[in-house]
Design a protein that fits this description.
This protein is α/β, with parallel strands linked by helices and 480 residues long. The chain is built from 11 helices and 20 strands. Strands 1, 3, 5, 6, 8 and 9 form a 6-stranded mixed sheet that branches. Strands 12, 15, 16, 17, 19 and 20 form a 6-stranded mixed sheet that branches. The protein has a 3-stranded antiparallel sheet with strand order 2-4-7, with no helix packed on it.
């Protein structure tokens, strides 16, 4: 286990190492003790003078003692009270009886019966020691849990399914007492499932010296994309005897966004060759300046054959033009999921969708993330779009994490498909209450013919504008 410890303060010259605020508090404390000691001595002189009948001296010394005590109460005590932290009173500590504690309490119950029935003093002495053990356990465990601060450091970018290394740090800010046998656990919120927790297993800290800190490396893995929150952590201990497990809750506002998986899947490997071929076909010939001539290949289009050169050379030769828009593309995710029911557009979380729709959508999101990451590694110029989110057309390294963050948060839009006959010929993708939000979104892309588009959609093929086919490659969510 890797740990970073801050050396404890030495006993010699301890005040010199304290912060100015703490030094002032210690000076006030020592001054108050000194003044009260002098007041007590003067009060003893006053008592002795009164016994000897020296009334005047007794009255003067009594007034001096009361004056010194009043001066401490008026000047020093309020200043010390203002500097005293009372946060420990507000600590919420939960108690849970352990199996060892049940056995111990059972033994105490037997001792109670035996002591009451026999009146044996030795049994009463043993019973008192046993009850004192419970009291000592409660006091020590509270001392161990107080004055401990927690900090969790997470990587900036986290992907689903990939392990990440986080740092969990505990700092013991107590001036005199160490802490022993601490476990840090993630406390789930009342309105959240355990799967949304960031810290899913306890982290053990055997010892924290006074004024020191320790750091543990924690491996975390998140199974799905989305937002993970940790509303509170629990610092837990069974010190010293293990009869009770005490947990101090520490409020937290830790929230992270987990990106979709970017590990290539079988579907990605099936799509990539087709996608590369479509892009090569689209970009070749987009320019107007002749680049070179080469031998004809079966995948080449006949319109690029140079018939004059072919006739002279006796073999088919193909013209290649300079690529003006090389590696410029737009990745589009249409989150509309077609439903076989009629009605208006409804937005529902993917967890409430039927399994088949939710599964298809998650595969589409993962495939979109893989494609975006692939072109990021190639250094392409890319734009990412959904109906509610658009990145600028820029080098993929500048917008990749914005795109992945949107993919982590995007939810399916349930798009009902009504019967065309019942709707009076409105078409298979529109209903009487729906103006075709998904259709409008894709129709708006048809005018952008200068950039190659990769579109993931559940829209029926026959409803896609013809102009989009010439500049786009479609991946249909219903077929994933």
């Amino acid at each position: 286990m890797n740990s970073v410890a801050i050396p404890p303060k030495s006993a010699t010259g301890a005040l010199r190492f304290l912060r100015p605020r703490e030094r002032s508090a210690w000076r006030n404390f020592i001054l108050a003790l000194t003044v009260l000691a002098v007041a007590m001595a003067v009060a003893l002189v006053s008592a002795a003078a009164a016994q000897q009948g020296r009334v005047a001296l007794a009255a003067v010394t009594t007034a001096i003692a009361l004056g010194l005590a009043a001066w401490v109460a008026i000047t020093i005590v309020p200043a010390m009270a203002r500097r005293t932290s009372l946060r420990w009173i507000a600590y919420q500590i939960d108690y849970r009886l352990t199996r060892d504690g049940v056995i111990y309490l059972g033994a105490i119950f037997v001792l109670v019966l035996a002591a009451v029935n026999t009146g044996n003093n030795l049994l009463f002495l043993i019973l008192a020691c046993s009850l004192a053990g419970i009291l000592i356990s409660g006091v020590l465990s509270r001392v161990v849990l107080t004055g401990v601060n927690l900090k969790l450091d997470l990587p900036e970018h986290i992907f689903a399914g990939q392990p990440v290394l986080a740092e969990l740090a505990l700092r013991n800010e107590k001036l005199f007492w160490p802490s022993f046998s601490l476990r840090v656990v993630g406390e789930p919120a009342k309105d959240a499932s355990a799967e949304s927790n960031i810290l899913s297993r306890p982290v053990f800290f055997p010892y924290l010296a006074r004024g020191s800190s320790a750091v543990q490396k924690v491996e975390l893995r998140f199974a799905r994309r989305g937002v993970y929150r940790q509303d509170s952590f629990g610092i837990r201990t069974r010190f010293p005897f293990g009869f009770f497990e005490k947990t101090r809750r520490v409020s937290s506002d830790v929230s992270i966004t987990v990106y979709p998986r970017v590990e290539p899947t079988e579907q990605f490997y099936e799509v990539l060759p087709l996608l590369s071929g479509e892009m090569a076909s689209y970009f070749r010939g987009r320019g107007h300046e002749l680049h070179s001539l080469r031998n004809y290949q079966p995948a080449d289009s006949a319109r690029f054959v140079d018939w004059k050169v072919s006739a002279k050379s006796g073999r088919l030769m193909v013209r290649e033009f300079a690529r003006e828009d090389e590696r410029r593309l737009m990745l589009v995710l249409d989150p509309a999921i077609a439903s076989p029911r009629s009605g208006s557009l409804m937005r529902r979380p993917s967890a409430s969708l039927p399994i088949e729709y939710a599964g298809r959508f998650e595969r589409a999101v993962s495939l979109a993330a893989c494609i975006a990451w692939h072109f990021y590694e190639l250094g392409s110029v890319m734009q990412f779009r959904t109906p509610s989110f658009t990145t600028p057309l820029a080098p993929a390294g500048e917008i990749i994490y914005d795109a992945l963050r949107e993919l982590a948060l995007v939810q399916p839009l349930l798009h009902p498909i009504a019967d065309p006959k019942a709707l009076g010929g409105l078409g298979p993708s529109k209903s009487a209450d729906d103006s075709g939000t998904s259709d409008v979104f894709l129709d708006s892309l048809a005018a952008e013919t200068e950039i190659f588009k990769i579109i993931l959609t559940a829209r029926p093929q026959r409803t896609i504008p013809t102009s989009l086919w010439s500049s786009s490659y479609f991946l249909f969510i219903d077929q994933l």
